[in-house]
Amino acid sequence: NITSATPLTLPGTAAGSLETIGDEDYFRVTVPSDGILTVSTTGSTDTFGYLVTDLGRFFASDDDSGSGTNFRIQNTVSSGTYYILVRGFGGTSIGSYLLSASFEGTSDDHGNTFTEATQITSGSVASPSVTAGEFEAIDDVDFFRFTLSRSNDNESNLLDSEAVTLTLNGG
Description:
- The chain contains one helix and eleven strands.
- The protein is mainly beta.
């Protein structure tokens, strides 16, 4: 169970063994920031893997996405403690395996609140401003701010004619 999980430093590996039918091995990893956690096994034992929250909730699982009959899970996570559960497939596989775990932090390209909003540089009708962004995690949000002002040239009627356009393109 998670209370007796074996600690695993990221990145790292740990040798494990499913010694009897129904045996389960738990490992504990601590993730320092938001990013992508990847866990997998190698070896001849048919493994099934789970990612578990610090509250004991299962949120990702896999059977054979790794090499051969091994699992591989890659999931976006927030900073915190997570557990990896390794079982034999169908609860009947026994044998040794090597667990590998790695983490790649994501950096956020734009602010996540109104106060952290990224300032967009003013453009013009002839030369609009373009600011690119990326959603680095499932729950990422990007806030932008800009200032509209009048000038003494031909663009001064933009605010009066409501011709301001904000275009968002996503893929």
